[in-house]
Amino acid sequence: MRTSNFWLRNCCHYRRNFYVVPSPRLRTPLLAALLPSPARFVAGTTKRTFSSTPSQHDWLAPKRGHNQKNRKGRPRVRTGGSTKGTTVVWGDYGLRMRDHDRRISAKQLQIGAEAIRKRLRGQRYRLYTRVCANIGVYTSGNEVRMGKGKGSFDYWAARVAVSRILFELKGDLHEQIVRDAFRLAGNKLPGLYEFVKKGDPPVMGITKVEAGTTLEEMQIPRLKLPMDIAAGRIPARTPP
Known about the structure:
The structure is a single chain. By secondary structure, the protein is an alpha+beta fold. The chain is 23% helix and 21% strand. It contains six helices and eleven strands. It has helices spanning 2-11, 29-34, 106-119, 175-188, 215-219, 227-232; strands at residues 13-15, 18-20, 93-97, 102-105, 125-129, 135-139, 152-160, 165-171, 193-197, 203-204, 207-208. The strands form four sheets. It has a four-stranded antiparallel sheet with strand order 5-8-3-9, with helices on one face. Strands 4-7-6 form a three-stranded antiparallel sheet. A hairpin with a 2-residue loop joins strand 10 and strand 11. Helix 3 runs antiparallel to helix 4 (175-188). The protein starts with a helix and ends in an 8-residue tail after the last helix. The relative contact order is 0.17. The model is unreliable at 6-21 and 39-45 (pLDDT under 50).
């Protein structure tokens, strides 16, 4: 039995959900007697077991890891007719940025999410995250002269545009409790935030698309006035 275990351990390679048939060179008579026929197995085939549990993704770091240096960049502000990411989709309540775009670090996002969980401890709810920290931030040390490259990796961050939803909540919760939880999270995060509910109007840039303001009107390009008319509308610096 010890011999069979030795041959199984050294001549057959087991992987997770894999069975790789050994090469004919290693198939000795003893190994052929211990193993089933190779016709029953196909090299490289997989056996995937069914699972109803979704895979957990880390939203505070990208799956690809640190493989290239990202540019500093600027958050994209959708002003050409798109209101993507400005309304509550999965939950009943949301936390939306309302001042201007900025870059938020993964540590700050984690602290904001922990503030919500601490306030709702003991409640039945589900927290959704609408942003992910997938931008690498690179810094140089203190008192370092200019040049000599971009710097070394420091932390992960997320580019959050204006009027973007950061967190969503769903559950049997009172609205005032959710408001208080989002208030605590907004105090931990940089910038100004507002509380929104499911069904609130979307936002294009900083303008809410609600009664009196339609999406079609905002998509109309601005009228270019002649130079003399445009110059006449500019106020004079000195009084006449």
